Amino acid sequence: MSEAPAAPHPASADATPQPDLGLLLAPPRARTGWRVLPARVAAMCAVELQKLRHDRTELYTRAVQPALWLLIFGETFTRIKAIPTGGIPYLDYLAPGIIAQSAMFIAIFYGIMIIWERDAGILTKLLVTPTPRAALITGKAFASGVKALIQALVVVVIAALLGVAMTWNPLRLLGVAVAVVLGSAFFSCLSMTIAGIVLTRDRLMGIGQAITMPLFFGSNALYPVAVMPGWLQGVSNVNPLSYQVDALRGLLLGTPSHLPLDFGVLAAAAAVGVTSASSLLGRLAR
Amino acid sequence: MTGSATDGEAPAVDAVSCSGLRYSFGETRAVDGLDLTVRDGECFGLLGPNGAGKTTAIRCMTTLLPVPASLVHVFGHDAAREPMAVRRLLGYVPQQLSADAGLTGRENVALFARVFDVPRRERARRVGQALAAVGLTAAADRLAQTYSGGMVRRLELAQALVSAPRLLILDEPTIGLDPIARTNVWEHINAVRAATGMTVLVTTHYMDEADQYCDRVALMHRGRVRALGTPAELRRGLKDRLGTDGPLPTLEDVFRDVAGSGLDDQSGDFRNVRSTRRTASRVG
User: Fold this and answer.
1) What is the interface pTM, i.e. ipTM, of the complex?
2) CB-based contact, B118 to chain A, within 8 Å
C-alpha cells in the first residue's frame, strides 16, 4: 500500500489547476457479509506494520525488559535450581513465559492507545466509516497481535542466543504465532474494555499497571502451577496467560501440555474480549 | 423532507434532514429540538458560539451518537436504522487534527480507501487522485508529522474524499490556521465541490468564511437554530429589523444579535475547549 505509485509527474501535479478526479466521482462498491471483517483486520494490521517500519524505537526499547528477565532472572534461577521445571533448564522453562509476558505488555496498553486515538480524532473518524464496531475492535486486536508477534520474534532470537533449546519446526512455530496473536487479542480487548469503562488515560494507566503484574505472577510464566498456593492456582486457572504459556511451552520445548484446551480457551477469551470491547466502544465515542 | 420537486421530476432528496432532534449529556441538553435541512449540492454553514450544540448535532448526523429513529436522515437513510448506509455517503473531518502522524500522507489516505472497500486494483490510483485534489502529491510519501497545519487539514480532506462521499462534513476545518492556509483549504474544498457536486456541511467560528463560501447558514444557540438563510438574507434581515442606515451589518453582527450576551456561561465544556486549544496549538 505504501509503495503505491505516485502520479506520473509529482513535481508538476500540485501546480496543475484541475487534477484528474475521475475515480473520486463514484463511490467504491461496498463489501458485504463475511468479507468485511478480514478486510478491516487486514487494514488495521497493515497500519501497524507501516508504523513499525517508520519507527522501530518501540521495538528496540521493548526488547530490553525481556532480555533482562532472561539474562538476570533466568540465569540466576537456573543456578539456584529452586523451581521444579520437569528436568529442563530454568532458562528454557522461562523463555516461553517471557514471550507471553512481552506480548501481554504490548497488548495491555492498547486501551491507552485507543483513548489517545479518541482524543486525537482518529477513532472518531474511523467510527464514521462503514466499519462495524466489532470489526474495528477485531482489527485493533489482531494489529496488537502482529506487533506482539514481532516482539515475540525478538525474544525468541534473544533466547536462542542464550542457548535455549527450542524447536525450529515450522508447524510448531506457526502454532506459537497463533497462540501469541490470540493471547494478544484477548489482552488488548481487555484493555480496550477497561478503556470503555474508565474513559481517560490517567485512570487506565493506573489500572493497566495494577492488573499487569497480578496477571503475570498469577500465571505459570515463572513457575509451575503446582507450586502455587491453592488460591493462586484458582487465579491461574482462569488466567488466559497460563493457557498461552502452556501452549508456548508445549510447542517450543515439547513439554507436556494441553494444546486443544489451551487454544480453545485463548480463542474463547479473544471472542469474549472482542464482544465486550465492541459493546463499550460507543461510550468512548461520546 | 423538504426537498423541492418540479412537476414530472422525482422529488430531490435532501442531503440532511433533522426534525425535532434532541440530545442530552446527563443534565445538559446539548441539542434541543433541532429542525434543519441541508439541500443536495449546497455548502451549508452551521454556526454558533461554543456549546451551541453544533458538534453534537454533527455527531448525531454522522451516527457517532445514537439517536431515536426517524429524527435524522442522510439522503433519505435513517441514521438510526441504517447507520452503515449513512456512513457510506459521508466524508468526515473532525475538529481535531486527526491524521495519523506516524504514517505518510499516502498511507493515511490508503487506510481510508481500504476501510471504504476500494478494490486493490484501483486503490493506488484513487489515493493518488485524492492527494492530487488537495495538492499533496509531492508530499505524499513524507510522514504526516512533518506536515504543516494547513497540509494536515488538506490531508484529512483527501482522506474524506477518497471514498467519493456525497456529503462532506467538516467540523471547524480551518481552526488555528493562518489566513493563507485557510484560504488554501477553502480553495481545495470548492474545487472538489465544483468537480464532484458534493454537498458540504461545515461548522466554523469564522464568520467571514461562512459569508464568503456558504450558500446558506444556520445560526445555532442553546441547541436550536435561531436564524437560517443565505448570509445576505440574514444580514439584510438584521438591517431591516434594526432600521438603521448605512452599510449592511456583517454576519458577525448577526451572530452577536442571535447569541446575545451570557456566552461565557455556555462556552462548551472543559474537554471541548481543551480539544479546540490543542488543535489550534498543533496547527500553529
Assistant:
1) 0.85
2) yes
